[in-house]
Structure formats: C-alpha cells, structure tokens
Amino acid sequence: MIDIILIILGIALLLIGFAGCILPVIPGPPISYLALLLLHFTSKYEFHSDFLILWAIIAVGITILDNVIPVWSTQKYGGSKKAVWGSALGLIAGLILFPPFGIIIGPFVGAVIGELIDGKTNRMALRSGFSAFIGFFFGIILKLIASGMITFYFFKALLQ
Predict the structure, then answer these.
(1) What is the pTM of this model?
(2) pLDDT digits (tens, 9 = 90+) for 106-116
(3) Secondary structure (3-state) at 93
(4) What is the pLDDT of residues 42-89, one digit of tens each?
(5) Which pairs count as long-range contacts for 13-19, CB under 8 Å and 24+ apart, including other chains?
(6) So where are the chain's domains?
(7) Contacts of 43 (CB under 8 A, 6+ apart)
(8) Around Cβ 43, how many Cβ atoms within 10 Å?
(9) Side-chain half-sphere of 37: how many Cα atoms within 13 Å?
C-alpha cells in the first residue's frame, strides 16, 4: 500500500515538475527529481546511488542555469535588470491572461516594458526584449529536457 502511495505521489511530482518547467516560481527539474527518489524508496524499485547523485546534480545545475541564462542573455545585449524582471513578470502575466501563447509573448513584452520604464529607446527596448525572450525560452527547453528524461527513467523503472 505504501508503494502505491509513493508511486502516485511520484507521478504527481512529475506533473508539477513539468508545470515548473514553464512557471518561473516552481523549480521543475528538482521537483521531478523528487519523483525518482520516491520511486527509489519503494520496495520494488531501486536506482543506483551514482544515478541518483548524477540526476540531483543535473536538476540543481539546470535550475541554476535557468536563473543565469536569461540575465546573461539580456545583459549581453545591453538589457537592464528591469528588462529581466519585466520578462519574468511578463511570463507570469502571459500565462494567466493569454494561455498558451502568453508564454511566448509575455517575456518579450515584459522586457520591452521594463526597458521603456528604464528610459531606453524603442530600438534598445526591442533588442532587450528579444534577448530576454531567447534566454527564458532556452531555460524552458533545458528544464523540459531534464524533466522529460527524469520522467522517462521513472516510467522505465516502473514498467519493468
């Protein structure tokens, strides 16, 4: 009975982890990784400790990169902190107001608005908006790949 509860909780964590790949306030890969740990603690499934350590490092590393890449890409093209914050807030607003397309449009519009508030020209604001969008998009792709691989290993072990 405990095994079934752990498996169900693991599947729920995988779903939350995928949501966290898109929503910036939820750390997707680490939550997905917790699903592997729950499966590991059942009586039927066991992962090698090296495997668990590797995926812990990957989950944490991608989460760190996800916070660094948008800032780096925005700053590389002359964007300000307001562009970075605008991009994050634009992502959240876009998801709420214009799903599913808001995830594409929100970070761009938020970064542009942030730059305009900071007094940048329209051209600079658009450039920063585009770079912030690319950074957030790249971070989302990395997180989806990691959570997808974790999900693959979870179900591969579960179905053996």
Answers:
(1) 0.80
(2) 888 988 999 99
(3) helix
(4) 998 999 999 999 999 999 999 988 878 877 777 777 778 888 888 888
(5) 13/38, 14/147, 14/150, 14/151, 14/154, 17/147, 17/150, 17/151, 18/144, 18/147, 18/151
(6) 2-158
(7) 2, 3
(8) 8
(9) 12
